[in-house]
Amino acid sequence: MNELLLALNNKLTVGGIFCDLEKAFDFVKLSKCEFYGFRGTNNVLLRSYLIGRYQSVLIDNSCSNNNTISEQGRIKHGIPQGSVLDPLFFMLNISDFPNITADLSKPVISAFDTSIIIAIPSPSEFKEDIKNIIDNIFFPLDNN
């Protein structure tokens, strides 16, 4: 926060991009897992953990002591919620996030949201840097 106030006091062009990363828990790029060393047997194990899963829901009706279990549905994507591997998959998903920011921007990453604060002297450079950062967030070089 002090850096933001200092930038404003120095009459820099200041802005921010605020991202909700909650959905980062819902998917994992298997190509990133391979890049970070999940190869061979580890990759097979990881794929079997993530692909071809089914789930059902238990509906607890405490008032009538009548619980109902839904039919099983195939999970098309996502990470099993509550898994001890959730933090690992989250870190893999956002591992390249700081690398997509401009030299004068500051990414602040937490589990569910991220802020990228940009402070640049020139409004035209600011506009260009914002566009580059957004392009890299939505269209990264690794499209796998």
Describe the structure.
Helix content is about 35%, strand content about 20%. With about 140 residues, the protein is of the alpha+beta class. It has a domain at about 1-35 and about 75-140. Strand 3 and strand 4 (about 70) form a beta hairpin. The radius of gyration is 21 Å and the shape is elongated. The mean pLDDT is about 75.
Largest beta sheet: what is the strand line-up?
Answer: 1-7-6
Q: What does the overall shape look like?
A: elongated
> What's the story with the biggest beta sheet?
3 strands, antiparallel
**How many helices does DSSP assign?**
5
Please give the share of residues in helix.
25-40%
Beta-strand level of the residues, as a percent range?
A: 15-25%
**Broad structural category:** alpha+beta
Q: Please, what is the average pLDDT?
A: 75
Output the helix-strand order: HEHHEEEEHEEH
Distance between the termini: 36 Å
Number of strands: 7
- Cα gyration radius (Å): 21 Å
Uncertain ranges: none
Task: Please provide a brief summary of the model.
With 144 residues, the protein is α+β, with helices and mostly antiparallel strands.
Which key terms come to mind for this protein?
about 140 residues, alpha+beta, 7 strands, single chain, 5 helices, three-stranded antiparallel sheet
